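Researcher: For the annotation table, I need structure tokens for Golgi SNAP receptor complex member 1. Please keep the output clean. Sequence:
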Amino acid sequence: DLRKQARQLENELDLKLVSFSKLCTSYSSSRDGRRDRYSSDTTPLLNGSSQDRMFETMAVEIEQLLGKLTGINDKMAEYTNSAGVPSLNAALMHTLQRHRDILQDYTHEFHKTKANFLAIRERENLLGSVRKDIESYKSGSGVNNRRTELFLKEHEHLRNSDRLIEETISIAMATKENMTSQRGMLKSIQSKMNTLANRFPAVNNLIQRINLRKRRDSLILGGVVGVCTILLLLYAFH
């Protein structure tokens, strides 16, 4: 009884899969005919077409038949593993394996056909959208074309502004690097001067003595000038 049910489901699945494959094959050409007949914006949506509804219905039916066939195979597997049938166990296992292979083939064929159908539908949808955009662009009014030109000009201005900003940033970075290098050079010179000053302390002492003598000579010269001035004043008023 289980084998009879399995064969019946397999025959139904075979017929459904043949019709399903024909639907996938004829979808592209019928889609081209619909696109030629409806080139305006009132073209019906792809998911609402009769072939799409037929595809969804057939896919659900095939999935239900596959589920039923899977359940029958599971029942046959339980029967072969039950007690009381040891003499026929090998033959039953062979029969069960054959039905499992058929189920696997039907499942693989269904998923492959379904994936092809979805790929064709997605490609047709994309091509239809591109054609629609091209036709919309070609049939656009002068105002839309003018607006597009303004957008392109504005985009070019923005690109020029970005380029100027990048050039300004590059100049600022180069200036920063030059200032950093100059600061390093000044620090190096200062460190060398400090090293020389620490290495030759006698030079510092000599410079200090020279400064002290200059100050003493200035004081002496100032004192002499002051005394001479006072003497001249006293002589003038005597």
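Researcher: And a one-line annotation?
Model: The two ends are 162 Å apart (CA to CA).
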